[in-house]
């Protein structure tokens, strides 16, 4: 039996408290992630800082996790598609390509209120479709709103209600509701179906087919 196997065998006989002591000993000389070196502190400190963050900061962190979950759970599992890497602050988060062409995808997280999934007046979930950062362009127009045509597909993470980072709902970007005072802009709060229907699907390939069909419609408010 190797030393490693012997250590594992002994650990299996230890109590939870004893294993925790061993873990703390190993943490003295072993980092969990390179971000510990980049920030010059330990992962435990970073996690505690996140735990103390306000709701706006946590929303941003959840957004980053959502994009990584989408990459791992959806994009990396697609067959027949290439994930196109790009740079710049664009209106979409992912750009994929198959033999028929490219499709871009904006990823958002289901909206929460005080840590709980937010339901709209019609009993549907809600997604907030606007940029996090505020600003104005050279013409003095607000840059936070999304315009129709800026992304092809909207993917909404249902992790807040399902507790599962692999669960998403999809619809075509141009099917979303417009703002009442400007039909060129997307309404901020969009209703998201809890189960697949004619407007929303939980299958990205189905939504891509919807998008490529060039069907003109608007989701049910």
Could you characterize what this model shows?
Strands 1-2-3-7-8 form a 5-stranded mixed β-sheet. The chain has a two-stranded antiparallel ribbon with strand order 4-5. The chain has a two-stranded antiparallel ribbon with strand order 6-11. With 221 residues, the protein is an alpha+beta fold. It is elongated. A hairpin with a 2-residue loop joins β9 and β10. Helix content is 31%, strand content 21%. It has 2 domains: 21-52, no CATH class; 61-212, Trna Endonuclease, Chain: A, domain 1 (3-Layer(aba) Sandwich).
- Discrete helix count: 7
Number of domains: 2
Q: Could you tell me the radius of gyration in angstroms?
A: 22 Å
Structure classification = alpha+beta
Secondary-structure arrangement, i.e. CATH architecture of the largest domain: 3-Layer(aba) Sandwich
Strand order of the largest sheet: 1-2-3-7-8
Biggest sheet character: 5 strands, mixed
CATH class of the largest domain: Alpha Beta
- What is the terminal separation in angstroms? 65 Å
Shape call? elongated
- Give me the CATH fold name of the largest domain: Trna Endonuclease, Chain: A, domain 1
Low-confidence stretches: none
How much is the average pLDDT?
93
Order of helices and strands: HHHHHEEEEEEEHEEEEH
């Amino acid at each position: 039996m190797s030393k490693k196997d012997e250590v594992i065998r002994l650990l299996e006989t230890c109590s939870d408290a004893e294993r925790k002591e061993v873990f703390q000993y190993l943490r003295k000389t072993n980092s969990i992630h390179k971000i510990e070196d980049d920030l010059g502190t330990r992962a435990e400190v970073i996690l505690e800082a996140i735990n103390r963050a306000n709701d706006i900061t946590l929303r941003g962190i959840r957004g980053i996790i959502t994009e990584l979950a989408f990459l791992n759970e959806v994009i990396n599992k697609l067959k027949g598609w290439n994930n196109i890497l790009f740079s710049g602050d664009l209106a979409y988060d992912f750009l994929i390509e198959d033999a028929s062409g490219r499709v871009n995808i904006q990823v958002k997280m289901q909206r929460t209120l005080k840590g709980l999934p937010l339901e709209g007046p019609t009993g549907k979930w809600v997604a907030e479709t606007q940029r996090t950062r505020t600003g104005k362009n050279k013409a003095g127009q607000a840059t936070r709103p999304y315009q129709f045509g800026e992304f092809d597909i909207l993917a909404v993470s249902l992790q807040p209600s399902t507790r599962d980072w692999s669960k998403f709902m999809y619809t075509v970007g141009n099917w979303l509701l417009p703002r009442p005072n400007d039909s060129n802009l997307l309404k901020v709060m969009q209703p998201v179906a809890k189960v697949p229907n004619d407007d929303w699907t939980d299958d990205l390939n189905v939504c891509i087919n919807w998008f490529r069909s060039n069907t003109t419609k608007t989701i049910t408010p």
